[in-house]
Design brief:
Layout lengths: L1 E7 L14 H24 L4 E4 L11 H10 L8 E3 L16 H6 L8 E3 L6 E6 L2 E5 L29 E7 L1 E2 L12 E2 L1 H6 L4 E5 L5 E3 L7 E2 L2 E3 L15 E9 L5 E8 L5 E7 L6 H14 L7 E10 L9 H4 L4 E11 L3 H6 L5 H15 L3 H19 L13 H4 L2
Parallel strand pairs: 1-2, 2-3, 3-4, 6-7, 7-10, 8-9, 10-13, 12-15, 16-17, 17-18
Antiparallel strand pairs: 1-14, 5-6, 11-13, 14-15
């Protein structure tokens, strides 16, 4: 029986600007990315894996700064680093002008990848031998590649031995599993589950999707996990919830059929959380702070975590809320989402009773237009106008506090 052990890490996006973070936090988050890459190599050494596979987006963009590039090249020179296979993705595609994949341009900077690092620089499948009966296959993403390029289409796999071969064939590439595209991500090198099943690869290490996932069919020539995304090594924005890191992949072969299992390896010390806090009945900003503090306690949010707090319910109409400093300092970054928060005006009463005052007639007119509209964006505008008008009548002030009210289109998952 043979055993192949891999560490799969992808979507580092080194050099990410992190514009959604406060300016003083951005460099720290970029340092987190570097630490995650360094930690992945240390984990690979400690776990005695046979290879590291990186299926795309090691860098965030082609124009990476010199310091980030120098770090990436040097970090793979850590003593004991195993053979590393990199398949460039759509954020760091392979091209003649690539500062990190073109050996000539890299050498002009006085840099070169260590000998044990192999970069797949062609958009077709090519291979490298890892061990006896074990090959690693890869392909790069290239600029201007047609959107319908299907990496697992039969005509693109003519150079790969058929499944009947006793060899272990490992695929490393950047692509989109159809039917599983996350919100906000574009389709790159699409493939279907049927194409995975018909492919000659024992295991497919894929990058591009930032949430970890796996495909474990109940039948076929391989038992266990056939394909997996490790997800982004560190969370890149507030939507990438949970724990992030790499995968240890173990492939047993020499039996009747290979068996593949994967194990998560945490690399990101921070965790991204999303909590909802109902502030109905809160008559002051201090009361809102206390409810948020309880929610952070309940979620076990730590000082290193990134937390989105979604305020819901009806807040006293004269309260203008901003979180207190001692609340924001409890975590690495606290984002307050007010899109589902509403002032406590009695709209149902205004709907059901005949208006007698100017403010009631104004509210009734806006409510009738709101109820008649079917356009989500128009409804959001009307609702904002309603609340600003009621503020002017009742509070004698109009401050821009309702601009975040979401439309119904935004509320849909």
């Amino acid at each position: 029986m043979g055993l192949v052990r891999l560490l799969q890490v992808s979507d580092l996006h080194l050099g990410r600007p992190f514009g959604w973070l406060p300016a003083e936090r951005r460099q720290k988050r970029r340092d987190d990315q570097r630490e995650a890459l360094k930690r992945s190599i240390q984990e690979a050494i400690e776990r005695a894996v046979h290879a590291i596979v990186i299926p795309g987006d090691l860098f965030d963009q082609e124009g990476v700064d010199a310091d980030t590039l120098a770090f990436a090249v040097e970090v793979f020179s850590l003593a004991g680093c195993p053979p590393t296979f990199i398949a460039p993705g759509n954020h760091d595609p392979c091209s003649p002008r690539s500062l990190f994949w073109n050996p000539r341009l890299l050498k002009a900077r006085g840099r070169e990848w260590p000998e044990h690092v192999h970069v797949f620089t062609e958009p077709r499948w090519t291979s490298r031998v890892l061990a006896d009966q074990v090959q690693v296959w890869g392909r790069c993403d290239a600029p201007r590649t047609e959107g319908d390029d299907r990496p697992l289409a039969r005509e693109r796999l003519t150079d790969v031995p058929p499944q009947e071969s006793k060899a272990v064939e490992i695929a490393v590439f950047h692509g989109s599993r159809e039917g599983h595209l996350p919100p906000g991500q574009k389709t790159v090198a699409p493939f279907s589950d049927d194409e995975v099943m018909q492919s000659p690869f024992t295991y497919l290490a894929v990058g591009h999707y930032h949430a970890p996932s796996r495909f474990t069919p109940t039948e076929g020539p391989v038992a266990g996990v056939r394909l997996a995304y490790a997800g982004s090594a560190v969370a890149l924005d507030t939507t990438e919830l949970g724990v992030h890191g790499a995968l240890e992949v173990r492939i047993e072969y020499g039996h009747r059929q290979p068996f593949v299992e994967v194990e998560p390896v945490r690399l990101d010390a921070r965790q991204v959380m999303d909590v909802s806090v109902d502030v109905t009945g809160c008559s002051s900003a201090e009361r809102v702070d206390r409810r948020i503090a309880r929610a952070l306690d309940d979620a076990s949010a730590g000082e290193g975590d990134i937390v989105t707090v979604r305020l819901t319910g009806r807040l006293a109409r004269d309260v203008r809320y901003e979180p207190a400093r001692d609340l924001t300092s409890r975590v690495f970054h606290l984002r307050v989402d007010r899109r589902r928060l509403r002032p406590d005006y009695p709209l149902e009463t205004l709907r059901s009773h005949a208006p007698t005052t100017t403010d009631e007639r104004f509210a009734r007119a806006l409510l009738e237009r709101l109820d008649a509209s079917t356009d989500p964006e128009e409804r959001a505008r009307l609702e904002r106008a309603l609340y600003y008008g009621l503020d002017a009548f009742h509070l004698r002030e109009v401050t821009p506090v309702h601009e975040e009210l979401e439309s119904e289109a935004e509320r849909r998952p």
